[in-house]
Amino acid sequence: MANKFVQFNNVSFRYDEEAPYALKNVSFSVFEGEWLAIVGHNGSGKSTLAKLMNGLLFPEEGDVYINHLKLSEELVWDIRDQVGMVFQNPDNQFVGTTVQDDVAFGLENHGIPRDEMVERVHEALRHVNMVDFLDQEPHHLSGGQKQRVAIASVLALRPKIIILDEATSMLDPRGRNEVLEVVRELKNKENLTIISITHDLDEAAKADRIIVMNKGQVYREGLPEDIFMMDDELTKLGLDIPFTTKLVKSLRENGYDIPKDILQEEKLVDYIWKLKQNI
Amino acid sequence: MEIKTKHLEYVYQKNSPFEKRALYNINITIPENSYTAIIGHTGSGKSTLLQHFNGLLQPTSGEIQIGDLVIGSEKKKKGLKSIRKKVGIVFQFPEHQLFEETVEKDICFGPMNFGLSEEEAKIRAKKALKQVGLNEEFLQKSPFDLSGGQMRRIAIAGVLAMKPEVLVLDEPTAGLDPRGRTEIMDMFYSLYKQHGISIVLVTHSMEDASKYADHIIVMHKGTVYKYGTPREIFDSPEELIKLGLDVPESIRFQLKLEEKIGAQIGKQPSISINELTDNILSYLKRGDIQ
Amino acid sequence: MMEKMIFGRYIPVESVIHRMDPRAKLIIVFLFIFVVFLANNPMTYGLLGVFTFIALLLSNIKISFIIKGLRFLFWLILFTFLLHIFFTKEGELLVSWGFIKIYEGGLIQGIYISLRFFFLILFTSLLTLTTTPIEITDGLESLLNPLKKLKFPVHELALMLSIALRFIPTLMDETEKIMKAQQARGVDFSEGSLTTRAKAIIPLLIPLFINAFKRADELATAMEARGYRGGEGRTKYRLLKWDLRDTLALLILIALSVTLILLRN
Fold it and tell me: Which residue ranges does the record assign to the ABC transporter domain (chain A) (predicted)?
């Protein structure tokens, strides 16, 4: 099995002692180089998970390991070096006055020499197709563009893992596609581990593996096709199922025995076409 | 109440070096008790247009008629307040407008601004809270102790409590999870069906537009590109795709399948998953391959 | 209204003055405040005028544009001018019209003070017209750097300033958005008595503050996640480059001061 890059061992967490547990006894692993989607309705504990992965929060019980380092006050900065986070609100994570200043911010924090910074800023912006916007100010950018800059800011620090904490939920469809396209390309080109925390099932369908969170606990873990076969169970958890799964279901109800695990539209198109040839 | 525009034009910062035309030649009618969806890219003028519906913006030329009131480009129009009572707007991320100590006070804020007594406003607050699916326990809570989804509902209740005849919604479900989205959209739909309210929905979701609306306005670069029923709008999906807009998933799938087959299935694009299923079934059952 | 005011606004055109190091510009403007007071006769005022005028020409910004933009400040100049004319009673009596008496000394004094004021305003607005706010911040940070030894939080101050600059447009948009949302709920910001209007501000200010705090909180989290741990050990991406032209500009100002000292009475 591949290297376990993130490991949660029986992690519990509360925001304060009177509050109910936001996470209760959560255990799971993320493997190096995979794209994992963590889904769940708002309040299911998925964003708390993200904050525990780079020491913005610490577990009340249990342990979190990032690249075999145990999360603790002493190691928190070493861990943050390996974990890049892209947050939900495009505006509230844009620190610099221009695109290039924003990408440089993290590098400045790490004391990188200026010549290297210039190189890394350009490289990171090339990866997200924003190199033409070097001197643009944030209020002249669209939400999707700002999120791409946020990804570049994270990339410039060369993390091993990027966490997208509902990074597309405030974007319009165009912005969402731009961001997901960039993430997919990155994952293919670089050996990056990606964790996307989302309630967008189309986004989750693009992942290698999905964890479904409910009431602060891991409800189910599996391949996208396994997860989406849960069907009505997902709807009961306040989630949705992707369009292709809905269509397969509808065709099955009408007497066509189409395999439940078809997720990609292209595959379903092919399947229907072949079905017709064989009639 | 009907809303009608005639050659409406809006220019930001007119007669300054920063002048920018946001809308031009807008001629639309939003009939009484109708459900209209406005679709188009960010920056196509949707948000500017909807601010005309309750006089937050006045046309820089042309006019808009809201009920009996005609607003043109004349200096500061009187009587806008009465219009704002009849046309409620739920802006994007409306939870950002909450400010009172309790949910009850915040919901009462609108109605009391329009002259209702505290007692009457409180009755309305209770009712509005129920409409958005929250129980009375919330009345005395601070809106800032609630979850994002609950805050959104409170803000919507604050507009509903004004009892508007027209409800304008600017992407009311942005950022909500799937369950919250469905619940809120269904709630608006029942307001339209049961209480005779007109709904104007600005949305990026073609699914919502085709599922709920009886009219769709397609905005492009500051003017109306197309106006019609969902059937009419989605009958030529290529046009929308050309503008870079999405089409409902069922149509997108049908186009892919037709491309593979090299022929059309069904008479027209399927605007729902049921239609698509029927079209696929009839294709599979048909003997000949074209 | 904000659009018409140019005081404190950056105009992005190409010019020698634009390309100058913000530190040089800051030093020169600072020194200029004192240099202006060296002038005390027609010759020296003339020289100051020529100097200011040349600086304006070099900045490549339309003079008519500057004059238009600074119109509201001219009322202030006019006011000081009149003040001096009416209240300085020196020299020959020039005009006597009822209780208004204008003396030669007053007239000259009025002209001189107004010119001084005029040159100062032109020169300082030249700084903001040709330098982006962030460049000014960088320049200030660099110039104040020695104060770090005295435990003065130079880096923190500069960071605060730059974040404030970055968020001004965002908060302006937000103000407008909340204002419209409350107007849609029946608030009237422009009508009614002073107290009603003051009350109308509350539904605007509270959400604005709450959202600003939320933003600040999220921004702090994002900064921390990107490894921000204070100014210690940080490098700087924005580069200030002191060129020959900056040294030259400074020398010219010194030459001007020396000439002024020599020419003044």
Answer: 6-240
**Dist. CA C191–CA C172, nearest whole Å:** 22
Average pLDDT value for residue range B36-62 = 94
pLDDT, residue B204, reads 93
Where are the alpha helices (H) located in chain B, listed in sequence order? 46-50, 80-86, 103-113, 118-131, 148-160, 178-195, 206-212, 230-234, 237-242, 249-261, 273-285
Chain segment C132-171, per-residue pLDDT in tens: 888 999 999 999 999 988 989 999 999 999 999 899 889 9
Query: What's the pLDDT tens digit per position in C38-93?
Result: 988 889 999 999 999 999 999 988 887 777 777 778 888 888 888 888 887 777 88
Residues B140 and B271 grouped into a single domain: no
Q: Does A2 touch chain B (CB under 8 A)?
A: no
Mutate which: A92, A142, A153, vs C, most C CBs within 10 A: A92
**From A166, A225, A253, A265, the catalytic residue:** A166
Q: Which of C59, C6, C3, C4 is nearest to C28 (CA)?
A: C59
**Quick one: B143 and B221 in the same domain?**
yes
Secondary structure string (H, E, C) spanning B124-174: HHHHHHHHCCCCHHHHHCCHHHCCHHHHHHHHHHHHHCCCCCEEEEECCCC
Label residue C1 by pLDDT band (50, 70, 90). Answer: very low
pLDDT tens digits, one per residue of A96-116? 999 999 999 999 999 999 999
Stretches in chain A below the pLDDT threshold 70: 1
Confidence of residue C253 (pLDDT cuts 50, 70, 90): very high
- Say yes or no: B271 and B178 in one domain: no
* pLDDT recorded at residue C2: 43
CB-CB under 8 Å, B96 with C183: no
Q: What is the rounded CA–CA span in Å between residue B270 and residue B276?
A: 5
Whether residue A172 lies within 8 A of chain B, CB to CB, comes out as: yes
- Count the domains in chain B: 2
Within an 8 Å CB–CB cutoff, is residue A173 touching chain B? yes
Classify residue B171: in a domain, yes or no.
yes
On whether both B115 and B228 belong to a single domain, the answer is yes
Q: Determine the residue of chain B that is closest to C200 in CA distance.
A: B113
Q: Which residue of A has its CA nearest to C137?
A: A97
Chain B residues whose C-beta sits inside 8 Å of any chain A C-beta: 41-42, 147-149, 174-180, 204, 244, 246, 249-250, 252-253, 256-257, 260-261, 273-274, 276-277, 280-281, 283-284, 289
Q: Structure pTM?
A: 0.88
Q: Do B234 and B282 lie in a common domain?
A: no
- A253 counts as catalytic: no
* Cβ pairs bridging B and C (under 8 Å): 58
Q: Which long-range contacts (CB under 8 A, 24 or more apart) does A67-74 make?
A: A67/A5, A67/A160
Q: Are residues B225 and B254 in the same domain?
A: no
Chain C interface residues (partner B, CB cutoff 8 A): 3-4, 174, 177-178, 180-188, 202-203, 206-207, 210-211
